[in-house]
Protein 1
Amino acid sequence: MAASCAVAVGAPALAADAGPGAPGIGDEYFPGYGNGGYDVGHYDVQLRYQPDEDRLTGTTTVVAEPTQDLTSFHLDFALPPSSVKVNGRDAEFTQDGTELQVTPQDVLQAGSTATFVVEYSAVPSEEDGGETSPWIRTGDGALAVGQPRISAWWFPGNDHPRDKATFDISVAVPDGTQVVSNGVNTDTSTIGDWTTWKWRTTEPTATYLAFMAVGDYDISTREGAFGQQSITAYSTGLGELDGPARASVERTPEILEFLSGLLGEYPVESQGGLVAAEGLSFALENQTRPTYSPAFFRSGANTGVVVHENAHQWFGDSVSLDQWRDIWLNEGFASYAEWLWSEHEGTGTAQELFDHYYAEYPPDHSFWTITPGDPGRENLFDEAVYDRGAMAVHALRNVIGADALRDVVRAWVHSKRNSNGSVGEFIDLAEQRTGRQLDRFFDAWLYTPAKPEPGPDTGIPVPARDAADRPAPPAVAQLDRTHELLHGH
């Protein structure tokens, strides 16, 4: 404290009101996530990983702009640092769980460019940071894949979707081991017994959507949709699931063409997918390259999950949630994209799927007690966020019309590209674009813990369609299996 005061007194007048950055970015569900006082522009993550020991050694450089005059700031990081430098000078630091507080030698002035360099070496699977480690160690390597957080177990940063940045990720591994990450593979080189894989993302990316997969993978690079590079990777340990996994993920370019016809221009610079053989019990929409558990393909090809994760490239990745309570903007629209794909493939129309789910859950079912617009931290990935969330989108289509819904969705993803949005902002846009007052609709579907009643305000035909006595559309079985796994985030 004495050192901080001395710096402030001796600094120019600009720093007179300097102070520490907040240890959280202001998320209602996760107050400790993210940090205040600076915005990150770029991460340079340079790693060396030894699979046999699960030993990760790294140097991460964070390029940031202070948004206030800073005497100290926080980074979200679970691994123990060996040194921290700020603007090339040694900085003091303390660590409590996943909060790394850094005190530089000089006050960081608002609007300047600052670099934070953190060196570290640890076994990520053994570091809990005060909570369960999301790092996944596998028989042939590791997976840095998780939601709502993972980055703190492999690089320090501002861990909240509200602060997105570009990435360079370089990983050295024993020769013969592969590394897959986001964006484009800019270089792969071998020196001695080590091979270094370099990956780059040029579109702003949330920290939890940056990923790394290390292991034995069959990697293919080809031209995908829109003339982009498409990179797919399949674990060599998939066995009999290799075929159905490829039959699903290799259709990614076709699926992206379909989605772009609905949502507008594909918003990121690369595409593809990765299927692990072990460790994952879910799929995640890592930016440019979703990752999939092999469990999705146990019953055969599953294009629905590929549609879901790639719809997130628009809803979730390019347009990220403002707070984690806004999760409906991610999962409701990605789930509804599956319904539209089912309609496209002839396995059930969106209305048939709506009718099925509306009839499946009686009014006293717990499904209706979860409000997708504000589900609560404990219900962040509840089935209601996915299925009731998709029903809300379809009901909105019934209320305003298919053309109007497409107009609202395209306006949303265009105006919010590479930024963040809230459910409230989406509602405002829907009302602005349609010229209609939609409070009763959104209250019923997103904020009322009860089954919406049929009527023109809710988008449910009167009398309500009763699908209980009709066979479920063919798509339902795959949708239910897929969402059961997706709820495991």
Protein 2
Amino acid sequence: MLRYLLPLLVLAAPLSAAGAAFIDPRISVAHGAFCAVETFGESPAPETAAGKIDLYDDVPRIRWHGQIVPAHGVMTFGIVSKSPDGAVYNDVEIILRHPPFRESGVTEQRYLTVLGGAGNSINAYSFDFPEEMVPGTWEFEAIWQGETLYKIPFEVVPASMMPDMISACLDRTLTS
């Protein structure tokens, strides 16, 4: 029996490498992945690899909850947050740490945003270019006035490890 269980444990080890999330009680979150969606605009963000962040018309729904994401251009992953008491947190610094991009060597990206208020907020990442699709631990951290509101690691894995997610997004893309 152990010889059958051992391969499963070895396979599961890289999938749990992302680690535990920290979430301040002032913020409630859902984290995971969803199929990439159209954005309606952008905002300058000079400390990001692209120099901008994309803006969503509506906050996308997390389709796959958890911390494991396949590296593929049809995937987006991140955190949907809400302030249960409606408090607004201005000038929240979002820091995304990740393995070095293949060409540029970028390992960290930063931008300012607002969290809380009456609705949901989203901070997410889409794989727009092949150099960004690097496996390893990616971590979002939201810092407000020197305090961490959330710190959530994700494990980005090769797309071949999660073909069902990729297929679901490709099928949706082909029909929309």
Protein 3
Amino acid sequence: MREHGTGRTHLRWAALAAAGALALTACGGGGEKEPGAPQGATASPGVALPRLDGEKLQVAAVWTGPEQENFTKVLKEFEKRTGATVTFVPAQDPIVTFLGTKIAGGAPPDVALLPQVGALVSAVENKWAQPVGPQAQAQLDKNYSPGWKSLGAVGGTQYGVYYKAANKSLIWYNAKAFEAAGVKPPTTWKELITAADTLSASGTPAVSVAGADGWTLTDWFENIYLSQAGPEKYDRLAKHEIKWTDDSVKQALTTLGELFGRKDFLAGGTSGALATEFPKSVTQTFTGGDRPAAAMVFEGDFVAVNIGQTEAKVGEDALVFPFPAVGAKAPVVSGGDVAVALKPSKGAQALLTFLASADAAQIQAREGGFLSPNKAVDPAAYPNDIQRNIAKALIEAGDDFRFDMSDQAPAAFGGTPGAGEWKALQDFLANPSDVAGTQAKLEADAAKAYGN
């Protein structure tokens, strides 16, 4: 979930606070409703697409489960409008390696959704990516802020469309577990540790950590680092202009160790956390009534998709608060998936055009667990007040943001299972007292990947 580019993606702290507020107001709307659209959604005139009867397209992404199912509904609408046949191709991380194998075999997908900025840069450097066409560019110019457009550009040329965004600075909690323990949502890291102590003492482990998926651990670190060290050092570390042996990294890891070092805080203890994959980290937090496996789970807005696999209801049983402030301000880290054409075909460009339109984003927004950086998306398309306000905060933040640090790094360091930052932080979860050893490992891997 990565370039070597300008510092980007820190949503305004005030905007996040509004997004995570527990008392949220509904967004109304007016106008003519689309068939089957939620109350308040307005009819769209529809983006112009060419007829592609008989054309077959393949779209690759690392999405699985409900996320894949919901995106397939978007592809079905594209098929309906154009006459093309579109096949979803499940990809594996690192997606650059997956695509390289496909391309070497002479069978690249027409479009790929890349979960790292670094993967986009690699695709361009390898001469796989095609620049966006004029129709897709027109949708981008109409619907996207300059910051989100620049994330999809390399060397001044537009190659990608950021179809999906993520606010990765949210902690979701089981309302019944909090109520049973008499705990309120914390606003500072110190309050979070105190709340975790109270929750665990009440018999419910505080946090469900998806330690089997290294990318979630990078998000833990990045939120702490951004709040504690500040945005300037965050940008420098993202570019490897300062070393991972820097004292600021030591401080962030030490802070993270205050949580990871308490086995009683973690669902299943340390071994349980290391064996827990992301989907389970969410579902086990929202099953079991007021005695779930854990009271909280950290991750982005997309957690809502996995909550949807339980009986819990977002906004009632499952609530959310902003990642607590470690330093002067609470952090907000964002990520996203960029759609890139890998074939110079009419169909690939038409799909990019569709994905850059509000039409496509609104289909997936209605399913929940999805956030679009497209400012033309009707807020009423989001299924509940929590997701609606998270989306509004993203749009209102404009270009005032920081992008996920590991997503900016070369994939060998920031985006490969069992290697680089993912592996180093999994080892740190297993032994949070080894701060110096973790720093040394991170620096050695970063120096190799960045080539400096």
Protein 4
Amino acid sequence: MKLDKYTVGKRYGKALFELAEEGSETDAVYQSLIILDGVFDEIPDLGNILTDVRLTGDEKEAIMNRLLQNFDGLVKNFLKVVFDYNRIDDVPFMIEEFNRRYDIKNKIAEGTITTAVAITPEKKAEIEAKVAEVFGYQKALLKPLIDESILGGVVVEANHRVLDGSLASQLAGLRAALGK
């Protein structure tokens, strides 16, 4: 039975996190995975290329060696194993699982902040501090999004929790209370 990408990602990401913890390298591995994630963002088909049956083993090896030049230690060895098991196309899911575990360990809430108009960096930092306090985390990292349909206010989604302070939801609540 072939495992889906999500399951593979969870297993490999968990294994990498546990190895990093064992060697007290979680912060260093996390930083390396940020770089690796950036590579996969820049070249979205990299995983497919490295698992493509139309390429020879030597061609794949040359591409992989080029990628490995950017990493060392645990991350480099991890990538070699993932490549050897032909799972390189699942790396983004592995990174996601590692990051999830890293955030839990370090009490970091990641998510989005949606507003009707752009907010200043100062206001974003203020909201992040408040969200961290409300959710009981050390820190909140929120990606700003703009959605004019919320009319005003703020909607924060972090770690599967939502704080909806949008004008649109307040108006909907008012309509419901008035029976309209």
